[in-house]
Write a structure and sequence with these properties.
By secondary structure, the chain is α/β, with parallel strands linked by helices. 39% of the residues lie in helices and 16% in strands. It has two domains: 6-213, Rossmann fold; 220-497, Ribokinase (UDP-N-acetylmuramoyl-L-alanine:D-glutamate ligase). It has helices spanning 6-18, 24-42, 57-71, 89-100, 112-115, 136-145, 220-226, 252-265, 279-282, 328-337, 346-352, 356-361, 372-378, 383-388, 390-401, 436-450, 454-475, 484-489, 491-497; strands spanning 48-53, 75-80, 118-122, 149-153, 175-179, 197-201, 215-217, 241-245, 269-273, 290-292, 295-297, 300-303, 314-317, 341-344, 366-368, 404-407, 412-415, 421-424. The strands form three sheets. It has a ten-stranded mixed sheet, with helices on both faces. A six-stranded parallel sheet has the order 2-1-3-4-5-6. It is elongated. Bound molecules: ligand NAX, adenosine-5'-diphosphate (ADP) and potassium ion. Adenosine-5'-diphosphate binds next to helix 16.
Length: 499
């Protein structure tokens, strides 16, 4: 499924009409009917609906919806919130059908907020532009202050469809019925909450007319299709020889988690390059792991011998490495001394900031896995700006430096060096604990050694991580007490769903 910007949604609509013989008012009938049917499924009791209808096509959907709910014998108070002259085109067509069906449009009274139980917000859709003008500003406030269940059509009124919006006033929906395809704002930290629960409803726009947005949502089906099976003839050398570099005196745990996750995710041979002093504490609990030394000073990794990189199918650097400036040379050696797939995370990203020109010149495939704060630092932006524009900032960074980017968060955005994007939304708030990222790094090290397509490797790895968190919470833990090592121990829950 594609993630769309408003402009792309309009293009889809336009193409359906101009090139695929669809009529605008039929598309509107389909949209309103599909949503009405879902409303009837979700609210099957004695609800009393207050439908607020705006002046654009979102309002047009509202006329259809109000008619169908009335046809089904529901109690409906339908309010056109703008003057008659604002209703045009397909919306006017459906307003006429509504009226010819013998149904009336009511005027809004204070009692409507008390005697109804559900407000259906069909005021503004993806065409919203700038700060809300009367009467929408006041109505949005009233909707939000009311005790009615709040249902939004396509998008909560006032909320922009696209990333980038700074100041907006919007309906805080309990449920949003999204028309045809998710909009970018569904995946941004500052806007996703306005949607409440949400469903994407297929209103029958021809798939062939859909625009190539270059951004899609990763699905369980995509994972099943693309996750490589282990051939019966596999041996340890064919399943990936990985190297994890990190873990100073003060943060051995990060290295342990990444290495263990890589092993559990299915790597053939995993080696850790770390300060020798911590090896005795790790080795007994992780007998599958091999070790190689590094140059250290005061417990800080200050250099690696490029020889240890030979024969490796993938290298991950940064977990628990620390930010001592003397470790920067390690990242530099990797950028210049490796040809294979290289993943840079955590403190590795910190050091990378001063090495961006080497990153640009690197020929091998590089993966960066920043969270929002690390991304902000990498691209010299405020955190708030990255939060507002994660799609475009990721795309420009990935293209400029020729890297794959995994911008982590509740909706992780994966971007290829060519600018293609995937949104991966598995996981839950239980992952907001130190160490979740280290586990992800280990998993991604393995998937990137086992998939030929880097996009699939990263999307599938993020899925493996997030879906495991979901399954662990269904079975044993809660979002409060789940810890990153639970993920490592329960990867089999997710693998089993992929068989
Ligand atoms: N593929 C599609 O694009 C489809 C879209 N449909 C519906 O059509 C909607 C988009 O329709 P429109 O383009 O007419 O957009 P809207 O329904 O959002 O209406 C835009 C109109 O609202 C007013 N407006 C915009 N910003 C405002 C502000 N800040 N304050 C006050 N008034 C403001 C303006 O008069 C503008 O023309 C979608 O959200 C969806 O509900 C469906 O009917 C069918 C298919
Ligand atoms: N609220 C959340 N909902 C879903 N996933 C989350 C949430 N918080 C964190 N995550 C996931 O957990 C991981 C955290 O990574 P990171 O911030 O690097 O953690 P750390 O460095 O502490 O190990 C990422 O994969 C991120 O997508
Ligand atoms: K709406």
């Amino acid at each position: 499924m594609q993630v769309v910007r408003a402009e792309e949604m309009y293009e889809w609509d336009r193409k359906a009409i101009e090139a695929y013989g669809r009529e605008g008012h039929i598309l509107m009938e389909n949209a309103g009917r599909t949503i009405a049917e879902q409303v009837l499924r979700d609210f099957s009791g004695e609800e009393k609906f207050l439908v607020l209808i705006g002046g654009g096509n979102n309002g047009g959907d509202g006329f259809v919806l109000a008619r169908i709910l009335r046809d089904k014998g529901k109690s409906v108070t339908a309010i056109q919130v703008v003057p008659d002259e604002k209703i045009k085109g397909d919306a006017q067509y459906h307003k006429e059908i509504y009226e010819q069906s013998g149904y009336v449009l009511d005027s809004l009274s204070e009692e409507d907020w008390d005697r109804n139980t559900v407000v259906i917000d069909a005021m503004l859709g993806i065409g919203v532009d700038g700060p809300l003008r009367p009467p929408f500003d006041e109505l949005v406030e009233k909707v939000n202050a009311s005790y009615l269940a709040k249902v939004s059509v396509d998008i909560p009124s006032g909320l922009p469809a696209d990333e980038g919006a700074e100041d907006f006033q919007a309906v805080q929906a309990d449920i949003t019925y999204i028309v045809q395809a998710p909009k970018q704002s569904l995946y941004l930290d500052d806007t996703r909450g306005f949607y409440g629960e949400w469903r994407i409803l297929d209103i029958g726009l021809p798939p062939a007319a859909s625009p190539e947005t270059g951004c899609r949502v990763w699905s369980e089906e995509a994972v099943r299709e693309s996750y490589p099976a282990i051939p019966a003839s596999a041996h340890k050398g064919t399943r990936g020889k990985g190297l994890v570099i990190g873990g100073g005196h003060m943060m051995p745990g990060a290295l342990i988690m990444a290495a263990k996750a890589s092993i559990r995710a299915g790597a053939g041979l995993t080696t850790a390059a770390t300060v020798p002093a911590i090896v005795p504490s790790i080795a007994p609990s992780l007998p599958e792991l091999m070790f190689t030394g590094v140059t250290e000073t005061d417990g800080v990794i200050t250099d690696i011998d490029a020889g240890i990189l030979g024969g490796k199918d993938g290298v991950a650097v940064g977990v628990g490495m620390g930010r001592d400036p003397r470790s920067q040379s390690v990242v530099e050696t990797l950028l210049t001394g490796t040809e294979g797939r290289l993943l840079i995370d955590a403190d590795g990203l910190y050091h990378l900031k001063d090495l961006l020109s080497s990153l640009k010149e690197r020929e091998g495939e590089t993966v960066l896995t920043p969270h929002i704060g690390e991304m902000a630092r990498l691209c010299d932006k405020e955190i708030a700006e990255v939060k507002r524009n994660p799609f475009s900032l990721s795309k420009s960074f990935a293209r400029e430096y020729g890297v794959s980017l995994v911008l982590k968060g509740p909706a992780t955005i994966i971007t290829t060096p060519g600018g293609e994007q995937v949104v991966e939304t598995s996981g839950n708030e239980g992952l907001s604990k130190g160490g979740s990222g280290d586990v992800l790094t280990g998993i991604l090290l393995t998937t990137m050694m086992q998939h030929s397509s880097m996009k699939e490797a990263l999307s599938n790895g993020c899925f493996l991580h997030g879906r495991t968190a979901e399954l662990v919470i269904e079975r044993t833990r809660t979002v409060y007490d789940i810890v990153p090592t639970d993920l490592i121990d329960h990867l089999s829950l997710t693998f089993r769903t992929m068989e």
